[in-house]
């Protein structure tokens, strides 16, 4: 338990440092998206999204799983006190990413005309794809730097890199679009910001490189460690290619079968809002892998079992409530920022959030624990199974049902692989999920979401919102109304506060959290600085209420 607790504390701190950068960068990018979407309109914004699908497809063939291999070996070598070898890991990964990134950027550039005319039947996309092609190289540099930061658990560097990228991207895109460059300006801003972020990431990587203790008897073995990482990562690269190609296959089919580009713009707006959930899912996913990589199932079975159950329970406690909140307030969130410009986006957003509910079944932990123990071929098999289901299902459902068919496919296709991974982990590692806790968290979130939805519906239909607006300082309302829908913003604020109150009450009434859980959460959050004080106040208050009303 002590080893598991130490890993949980370290991963929580690293995850928090990853989280604040993700939140700030996404908020900045989201603000930029609001301006861009309103400036471009749904048609031009749809072109912006479509133009990025080609580089995103080619990106799948870029790193060959090297980034995950870097994270795994960096974490493992740190745990085994083999610091000198980390230098070779760093340099080998950087050289590999830059070399392959350059080659694939040129491939994308040369294929742009053919793809724009033949695949999308939109020749105007060709110059946009050419500009976006250079984001393949830039993204590779950003990702290899992120792998270094994750493996060393120096995720504050990653946060700085992400924030810089979002600030630069937002500033450049808004300026270029206002200057009259339209969709081209948006693509230029996106590509240039990725390049600058890559340079920042490499600079931070060199700082960490110099901090590694030197062993002058040890020489860099770039070729040998590249081979070692590729031996581990080839199944992961195929996994990434298959799963990524599946996603891009859907993205290509959507404009092919759906002539309404405005509806596609609504879908991409909904995708941008789903990042509100990924605020919590991504740090968990990224930090679990190095944590699991420090443990060996043969030597640390008890610690691995505890870390696995911690990871599933507490990731569920974060991700499921946020998903339910997004689902019940999707209309208010979209309408607040875009008024009536994207009328289909709220429904798309609510449906997209469903896939995150599967965190209660361990989908954020299962692949990480399997990969960390070197079973990368197994995860490849699970991915191939998802692809075998997803390709035909996606083709026919998108053909007949458009965006709804796409969303349904992304939710249903991974379920068989998820079930099989749970069975395999139980059989070979004897690791299980605390199903009682998962069910209670889902039930608590559902209760809070249903009551919140009923409340905001009542407020919207009863005139309460107008009453609040009429008693607010009028010039302020007029100023805000130029940028947002004030009535929806009020409903969103009231709904969010009400949801949190009901959720905490439901968690206590259903006895989802025990005193041991509260103590574990306190220990895990002790190194979060000022945030830990706020978290501890909430936990202490919950403990007092639970003790007083005998909800322990």
Q: Main sheet, how many strands, which sense, barrel?
A: none
Strand content is under 5%
What distance lies between the first and last C-alpha atoms, to the nearest angstrom?
A: 22 Å
Radius of gyration: 24 Å
Count of helical segments? 21
Tell me, rounded to a whole number, the average pLDDT. Answer: 82
Number of strands: 0
Helix % is over 70%
List the helices and strands and how they pair.
Elements: H1 2-51, H2 53-59, H3 66-79, H4 83-119, H5 126-132, H6 135-151, H7 155-211, H8 222-257, H9 261-293, H10 301-328, H11 330-338, H12 345-352, H13 366-372, H14 376-412, H15 415-429, H16 435-462, H17 464-470, H18 474-481, H19 486-509, H20 515-524, H21 530-548
List keywords for this structure.
21 helices; 552 residues; mainly alpha
If you had to describe this structure to a student in words, what would you say it looks like?
With 552 residues, this protein is mostly helical. The protein has helices at 2-51, 53-59, 66-79, 83-119, 126-132, 135-151, 155-211, 222-257, 261-293, 301-328, 330-338, 345-352, 366-372, 376-412, 415-429, 435-462, 464-470, 474-481, 486-509, 515-524, 530-548. Helix 1 packs antiparallel against helix 9, helix 3 (66-79) packs parallel to helix 6 (135-151) and helix 9 crosses helix 13. It is globular, with a radius of gyration of 24 Å.
């Amino acid at each position: 338990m002590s080893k598991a607790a130490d890993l949980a504390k370290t991963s929580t701190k690293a995850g928090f440092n990853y989280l604040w950068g993700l939140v700030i960068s996404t908020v900045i990018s989201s603000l930029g998206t609001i301006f861009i979407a309103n400036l471009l309109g749904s048609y031009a914004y749809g072109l912006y999204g479509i133009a990025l699908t080609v580089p995103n497809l080619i990106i799948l063939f870029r790193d060959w799983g090297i980034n995950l291999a870097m994270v795994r070996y960096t974490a493992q070598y740190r745990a085994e006190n083999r610091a000198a070898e980390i230098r070779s890991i760093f340099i080998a990964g950087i050289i590999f990413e830059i070399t392959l990134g350059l080659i694939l950027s040129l491939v994308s550039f040369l294929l742009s005309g053919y793809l724009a005319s033949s695949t999308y039947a939109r020749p105007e996309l060709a110059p946009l794809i050419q500009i976006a092609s250079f984001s393949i190289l830039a993204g590779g540099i950003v990702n290899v730097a992120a792998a270094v930061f994750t493996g060393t658990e120096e995720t504050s560097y990653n946060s700085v890199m992400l924030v810089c990228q979002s600030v630069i991207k937002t500033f450049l895109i808004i300026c270029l679009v206002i200057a009259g460059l339209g969709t081209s300006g948006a693509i230029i801003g996106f590509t240039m910001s990725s390049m600058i972020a890559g340079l920042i990431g490499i600079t931070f990587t060199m700082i960490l490189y110099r901090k590694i203790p030197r062993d002058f008897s040890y020489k860099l073995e770039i070729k040998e460690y590249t081979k070692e990482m590729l031996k581990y990562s080839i199944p992961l690269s195929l996994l990434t290619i298959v799963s990524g190609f599946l996603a891009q296959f859907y993205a290509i089919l959507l404009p092919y079968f759906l002539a309404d580009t405005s509806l596609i713009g609504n879908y991409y707006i909904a995708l941008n809002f789903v990042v509100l959930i990924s605020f919590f899912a991504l740090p968990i996913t990224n930090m679990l892998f190095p944590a699991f990589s420090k443990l060996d199932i043969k030597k640390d079975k008890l610690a691995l079992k505890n870390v696995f159950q911690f990871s599933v329970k507490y990731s569920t406690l974060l991700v499921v409530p946020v998903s339910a909140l997004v689902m019940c307030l999707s209309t208010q969130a979209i309408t607040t920022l875009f008024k009536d410009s994207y009328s289909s986006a709220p429904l798309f957003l609510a449906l997209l959030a469903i896939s995150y509910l599967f965190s209660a079944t361990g989908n954020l932990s299962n692949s990480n624990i399997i990969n960390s123990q070197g079973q990368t071929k197994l995860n490849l098999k699970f991915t191939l199974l998802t692809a075998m289901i997803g390709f035909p299902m996606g083709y026919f459902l998108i053909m007949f049902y458009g965006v709804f068919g796409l969303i349904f496919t992304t939710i249903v296709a991974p379920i068989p692989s998820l079930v099989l991974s749970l069975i395999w982990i139980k059989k070979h590692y004897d690791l299980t999920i605390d199903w009682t806790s998962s069910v209670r968290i889902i039930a608590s979130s559902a209760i809070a979401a249903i009551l919140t939805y009923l409340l905001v519906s009542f407020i919207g239909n009863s005139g309460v919102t107008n009453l609040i607006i009429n008693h607010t300082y009028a010039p302020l309302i007029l100023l805000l109304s130029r940028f947002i829908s004030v009535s929806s913003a009020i409903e969103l604020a009231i709904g969010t506060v009400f949801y949190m109150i009901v959720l905490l009450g439901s968690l206590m009434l259903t006895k989802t959290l025990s005193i041991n859980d509260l103590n574990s959460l306190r220990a895990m959050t002790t190194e979060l600085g000022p945030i830990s004080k706020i978290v501890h106040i909430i936990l202490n208050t919950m403990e007092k209420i639970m003790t007083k009303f005998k909800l322990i």
